[in-house]
């Protein structure tokens, strides 16, 4: 074990109060303790309302609106279909390009591909790890042209139909700067807020805005490892009534309301979140504030424990944002790639041996075979972070 990796592992164990535990310490574990989950799920089962209609799914949507300040919420069966549905309502079609960062979970790009469109990768910035407004502006100036009310990629001839900003590990991306550029070019914006329930953009003279609500539409995921989970699930949030109505309609097979006729006016999807899943979500929304508080405490513990380690930085939210601290992460600051890779692999290897689950950041998507031929600008910053970032065990209940 290198000196650094043993030091880091010791400090992590001190922060969470487990030493060489006999059970695995996971990255982010669901918890239903001190919630009404069992009662709500039992209510679904007793009443028979377990599928895509029922009161819990409507209540869940109401509570998402109340918590985030969104005007509308449309619950769906997972975050990936939510992204696909949101892109569709923004007008993304076959053979369009969609701008997005390469440092994200593969679902962000897959949702684009599911519509026959093509991801076009733009670099990230080092502060938020989100899409870089500077790289975006440079790239658009370089390759984009306005024609017939749309923006096109001069090099490929394809329309640039939308942009997806991603709030990586719950840290808000710089939407304010991104939107200044996309508005100039008339490009709609989807926020992949899959990891960002409870993350906010701060403004000096107006109310904070929940992640997902500055762009045209945002999508939150409730997968098993997210801050709250419905088993599988997701939700679109938006202030845009048209997007809300269209996505609700399309997510429920585009059926026209009628007591007995089966009339469908679009080719819709069966995307709606089942009532029984929503029951689980509602039970956790009720304890969400407490969970966010526990996350802040956990971040503090890591801050204290790791502060004196050289060549390591704890990733923190930027000045203008409040993060939910979904996955607390460190960056290893070695300059030489060989040294960096060696330290990283040592750390991951030794952590696993101590039953401590650490995880490196995703492989940048343009390096996956499935996306190797996609259009892109320079991705220097994203590539620079590929081997640096490591997620630490971040379950809120670790502070107990
Ligand atoms: C989890 C996640 C998704 C996908 O959500 P699912 O509910 O798992 O389909 C999309 N994007 C990001 C950034 C995610 O972390």
How does this structure look, described?
36% of the residues lie in helices and 15% in strands. The protein is built from twelve helices and 16 strands. The chain has a seven-stranded mixed sheet, sandwiched between helices. Strands 12-14-16-15 form a four-stranded antiparallel sheet. It has a three-stranded antiparallel sheet with strand order 9-8-13, with no helix packed on it. Helix 2 packs antiparallel against helix 9 and helix 6 runs parallel beside helix 7. The protein is globular, with a radius of gyration of 21 Å. The model has no long low-confidence stretch (mean pLDDT 96). The structure holds pyridoxal-5'-phosphate.
What are the main properties of this structure?
single chain, 400 residues, alpha/beta, seven-stranded mixed sheet, four-stranded antiparallel sheet, 36% helix, 15% strand, binds pyridoxal-5'-phosphate
Largest sheet: 7 strands, mixed
Radius of gyration: 21 Å
Number of helices: 12
N-end to C-end Cα span: 29 Å
Low-confidence stretches: none
Mean pLDDT: 96
What spatial order of strands do you see in the largest sheet? 1-11-10-7-6-2-3
Tell me the structural class. Answer: alpha/beta
Amount of helix: 25-40%
Number of strands: 16
Order of helices and strands: HHHEHEHEHEEEHEEEEEHHHEEEHEHE
- Assess the beta-strand content as a share of residues: 15-25%
């Amino acid at each position: 074990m290198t000196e650094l990796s043993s030091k880091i592992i010791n400090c992590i164990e001190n922060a969470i109060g487990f030493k060489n535990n006999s059970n695995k310490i996971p990255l982010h574990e669901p918890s239903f303790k001190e919630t009404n989950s069992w009662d709500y799920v039992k209510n679904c089962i007793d009443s028979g309302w377990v599928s895509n209609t029922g009161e819990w799914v409507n209540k869940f949507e109401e509570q998402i609106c109340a918590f985030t300040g969104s005007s509308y919420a449309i619950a769906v069966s997972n975050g990936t279909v939510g992204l696909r549905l949101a892109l569709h309502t923004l007008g993304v079609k076959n053979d369009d390009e969609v701008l997005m960062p390469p440092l994200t979970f593969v679902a962000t790009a897959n949702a684009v591909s599911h519509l026959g469109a093509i991801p076009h990768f733009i670099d990230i910035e080092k502060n938020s790890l989100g899409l870089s407004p500077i790289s975006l502006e440079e790239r658009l100036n370089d390759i984009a042209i306005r024609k017939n009310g749309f923006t096109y990629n001069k090099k490929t001839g394809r329309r640039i139909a939308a942009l997806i900003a991603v709030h990586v590990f719950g840290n808000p991306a710089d939407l304010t700067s991104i939107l200044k550029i996309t508005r100039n070019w008339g490009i709609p914006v989807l926020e992949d807020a899959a990891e960002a329930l409870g993350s906010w953009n701060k403004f000096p003279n107006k109310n904070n805005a929940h992640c997902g609500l500055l762009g045209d539409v945002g999508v939150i995921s409730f997968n098993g490892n997210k801050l709250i989970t419905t088993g599988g699930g997701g939700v679109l949030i938006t202030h845009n009534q048209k997007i809300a109505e269209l996505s609700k309609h399309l997510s429920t097979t585009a059926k026209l309301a009628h007591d007995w006729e089966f009339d469908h006016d679009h080719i819709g999807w069966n995307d709606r979140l089942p009532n029984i899943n929503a029951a689980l979500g509602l039970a956790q929304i009720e304890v969400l504030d407490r969970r966010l508080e526990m996350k802040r405490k956990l971040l503090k513990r890591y801050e204290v424990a790791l502060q004196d380690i050289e060549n390591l930085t704890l990733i923190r939210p930027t000045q203008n944002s409040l993060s939910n601290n979904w996955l607390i992460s460190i960056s290893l600051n070695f300059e030489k790639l060989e040294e960096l890779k060696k330290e990283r692999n040592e750390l991951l290897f030794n952590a696993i041996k101590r039953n401590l689950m650490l995880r490196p950041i995703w492989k940048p998507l343009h390096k996956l075979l499935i996306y190797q031929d996609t259009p892109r600008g320079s991705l220097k910053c994203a590539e620079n972070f590929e081997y640096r970032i490591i997620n630490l065990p971040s379950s809120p209940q670790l502070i107990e």
